[in-house]
Amino acid sequence: MSKDVSTRSLVDHQRVFDRIWTQLPAQQNRTSSSWWWFILFPEGEEGYGPEQLMFSIAARAGDQIRVNDISMPGLDLDRSIKNGVDEFSAISVGWYGDDEAVHEGVVNQPATARLSDGSISAWADSKNSEDGEHAKRGGEIRASTDRELGLEAHFAGAGGEAKFEAWGALDNRVDSPVQAMDTDTVAGGMDLVAWRRMQFEGEFDLPDGPEHLEGICYFQRVCLNLPLFPWKWIWAFFPDGTAFSAFIPFLGPQLLRQGYNFFDSKRLERSTIPIRQSALWDSATGDQLVEFDSATIEPVFDDDPHPHFEVEVSDGEGNYVEFTATSYGHARNYIDRSILGGLTESHWSYNEYLFRMDDLKGEVEGRSIDKETVGQGFGTLEYACGLGL
Prior knowledge:
Elements: E1 2-4, H1 10-17, E2 33-42, E3 52-60, E4 64-67, E5 70-73, E6 86-97, E7 102-116, E8 119-127, E9 134-143, E10 151-157, E11 160-167, E12 178-185, E13 188-206, E14 209-224, E15 231-237, E16 243-251, H2 266-269, E17 273-274, E18 278-282, E19 288-292, E20 294-300, E21 308-314, E22 320-339, E23 344-364, E24 367-369, H3 371-374, E25 378-387
Antiparallel strand pairs: 1-19, 2-3, 2-14, 3-6, 4-5, 4-22, 6-7, 7-8, 8-9, 9-10, 10-11, 11-13, 12-13, 13-14, 15-16, 15-25, 16-17, 16-18, 18-19, 20-21, 21-22, 22-23, 23-24, 23-25
Organism: Halohasta litchfieldiae
Protein name: Hydroxyneurosporene synthase (CrtC)
């Protein structure tokens, strides 16, 4: 279904932008987690790929938790907020990849985070094992100083450093921050601020060496006040800036999955019950969205080290998109927490697959969709498994 994307005032944008700097502590509970994260798609010869980068600052409730096998304090629900500053335990994470290799652990640093009006920072002083010098490691995101609305970010870790700025055109709901979800019930809820299409530019000291990169990125601040659950999620861009996304939270035997593995049976791996199916096709100018209410994302296994995925979306009105998300890289983040008085642990992980679109075909608003008409698409696909209680 196609719909026009309405324009909004700067006041509207600012109201949503201000929500980035809170995790709504009054709504938090024992299952809560908070995330501030970017996915960066540098511009390349074929479009916005194959290079990709991810940087995040995240927190999870609990007395003691493990994130990527790093033991650290969890988010304290009884903490006090003093002078408008919310201090809590968090971890900064970053990875970099292309079609040759993915470098995990570019940043993987726990620290005390400080969240206040216009910024979140989580820095720790770490000793360099090579020369004995101390270095600041962690991450920081703050409101831009030179733009009406924008974000400046700095991340540094044992594997590299990134300093970049991201901003949107503010012409519509796609190029500006939006309140994508806002639910608060007795059983829990979710508050999600998304900036779906931003431009970015910055300096990056990566495992392959220093680079000046620019391109398109996606930013999200999400506060989950419910258990971390399985989902499949895609965000992809085409050379002209057109975006495609799909989201399918689901139930299935993957709820019990521990570590990085798959069922030997393809039928069992695909035995899932979708809680919701949604997808969108966003025009390059951002003034029109086509939304799909039927979506499937199914893993395909062959001799490659990671699965590929068959993606199909449609709206029942003639609009549809189909392609194979061919994985060329994989990164994984995972969280463990002791439950039931230490008798067992809950485990949740999300696998991020860097992919290129192959065998693309479809029709959107009467326009034929294939590689010849829209160019080469690149994206990130999340396949989250386990249950974070």
